[in-house]
Write a structure and sequence with these properties.
By secondary structure, the chain is an alpha/beta fold. It has a single domain (6-303, 352-454), classed as Amidase signature (AS) domain (Amidase signature (AS) enzymes, Alpha-Beta Complex), CATH 3.90.1300.10. The protein is 39% helix and 13% strand. It has helices at 6-14, 20-38, 46-61, 104-111, 154-161, 178-184, 218-228, 263-269, 274-289, 302-327, 334-343, 348-368, 393-396, 402-407, 436-449; strands spanning 41-44, 73-77, 115-120, 167-172, 187-190, 210-215, 258-261, 293-296, 374-378, 411-418, 424-431. An eleven-stranded mixed β-sheet has the order 1-3-2-4-6-5-10-11-9-7-8, sandwiched between helices. Helix 7 runs antiparallel to helix 15 (436-449) and helix 10 packs antiparallel against helix 12 (348-368).
Length: 461
């Protein structure tokens, strides 16, 4: 039962066939059994979670079932502020920080009756990592404890994959939801910029930060989106638009949809490995068999998206964390210090030009989506060995996720098979602005047509 999905557990809880207390006890037992090796949690709220589970059980027994998250264990990336619960950003500089208010996401999930089990490991302030000189050790990958779970929502994704919680929230500035979803073999959605509030989420880059859900299945991600999406007047980036029911048309399939593939990105600019390309081609065949039409799509250079984002992100990172760097650099890990310093070298002219470039690149992406419904490409490569990375690697590498932060478009990562070594492979599905429902629909159709959700990690090293 530790491997119930949210949808499965919710159905049993609503029918009084499963107790929220029983489900929480199973999750806590699994945390006790494996998380000393996995390091997915940095703060465990055991007593509070049990109290919430008992309240949920009493409400449900009294006929007051609130919905599919009622009584369901979840965690939050440790940059999501939680009232009365330490929120550290995985940094010594916030080792004793206890927020006085919940972030918007926690408010919504709590009102839905969810059971908060604790806070999940991240890279320092969702940026510097993986690091061994910060407040907590880095999280590991449950498919192979020697492998990298990717970042920065590493603990969030690893905990879901290992069955420690059924759902979670992460953040994504250049791929920090989709990268860990890919590496850990789960589903994670970066919504449209402005769809989900970031209020109470420690910032990384104001203009590119997104908040979004991760879970074992796309259906579970849709359930969470129904709860966390919506206008928040206290987040200046949040947009006041109607929010659809993301689960309503989830099973409508992909027949008739036009899917674009940016072949130049994956063949010339950032060539996919043979195993990843083979899995992508097989996924495209699945979509064809389901009635979708596949065609090439021409996009601006992948490097242009990377360069615009990185100049902006470095400048904004320095704006946010520069004061701590100047006054208490000893409280920050070396990787984050290096990257903050780099932001101090960006001039106002650089920043303005990068913002102008971002506008043009975002427009080009929306033009491309006029001729296609969805875009398919890898989410990344299989996880590699967990080890320190040169801090400059964040500036030099080119990936498949950042472009959709620049464009602001919704993008979903989900499992598309496994490497010969048994590590998950990740598919990415991107869509038009505000069309998360169509992206989720396509992801759900693919999951229903493939066997990948039947396999769980064994926590081997």
């Amino acid at each position: 039962m530790a491997f119930f999905t949210i949808a499965e557990a919710a159905q049993r809880i609503a029918a009084r066939q499963l107790s929220p207390v029983e489900l929480l006890e199973i999750c806590l037992a699994r945390i006790d059994a494996v998380d000393d090796r996995l390091n997915s949690f940095v703060t465990l709220t055991r007593e509070r979670a049990m109290a919430e589970a008992r309240i949920a059980e009493a409400e449900i027994m009294a006929g007051r079932w609130r919905g599919p998250l009622h009584g369901i264990p979840y965690n939050l990336k440790d940059i999501f502020e939680t009232k009365g619960i330490r929120t550290t950003g995985h940094s010594r500089s916030l080792s004793e920080y206890i927020p006085a208010e919940d972030c918007d996401a926690q408010t919504r999930l709590s009102e839905a009756g969810g059971v908060l089990v604790g806070k999940a490991a991240t890279w320092e302030f969702a940026h510097g990592g993986p690091s061994w000189d910060v407040l907590f050790p880095p999280c590991r990958n449950p498919w192979d404890l020697d492998k990298d779970p990717a970042g920065s929502s590493s603990g969030s994704a690893a905990a879901v994959a290992a069955g420690l919680v059924l759902g979670t929230m992460g953040s994504d500035t250049g791929g920090s939801i989709r990268g860990p979803a890919c590496a850990n073999g789960i589903a994670g959605l970066k919504p449209t910029y402005g769809r989900v509030s970031r209020r109470g989420v420690l910032p990384n880059c104001f203009s590119h930060d997104h908040s979004g859900p991760l879970a074992w299945t796309v259906e579970d991600v849709a359930i969470l989106m129904n709860l966390v999406a919506g206008f928040d007047p206290r987040d200046p980036a949040c947009v006041d638009l109607p929010v659809p029911d993301y689960t309503a048309g989830l099973s409508d399939g992909v027949a008739g949809l036009v899917i674009g593939v940016p072949y130049r990105w994956i063949e010339e600019e950032a060539p996919a490995s043979a195993v990843t390309r083979s899995a992508l081609d097989a996924a495209l065949d699945v979509f064809k068999a389901m009635g979708a039409r596949i065609q090439p799509v021409e996009m601006p250079a992948l490097r242009a998206y990377e360069d615009a984002k990185k100049v902006i992100a470095m400048a904004e990172l320095h704006t946010i964390h520069g004061p701590v760097l100047r006054t208490r650099p000893d409280l920050l890990g070396a990787s984050l210090r290096y990257r903050i310093i780099a932001g101090g070298l960006i001039t106002a002219q650089d920043y303005v030009q990068a913002m102008r470039m971002r506008t043009e690149l975002a427009r080009a992406m929306q033009v491309a989506f006029k001729d296609i419904d969805l875009m398919l490409l890898p989410a990344g490569e299989p996880a590699k060995t967990l080890q320190p990375q040169p801090p400059e690697s964040l500036f030099t590498k080119v990936g498949y996720t950042t472009a959709f932060n620049v464009g602001g478009n919704p993008a979903l990562a989900l499992c598309m098979g496994y490497s010969p070594e048994g590590m998950p492979l990740g598919l990415q599905i991107a869509g038009r602005l505000w069309e998360e429902a169509k992206v989720l629909r396509a992801g759900h159709a693919y999951e229903q047509a493939t066997p990948w959700r039947q396999r769980r990690p064994a926590l081997v090293s």
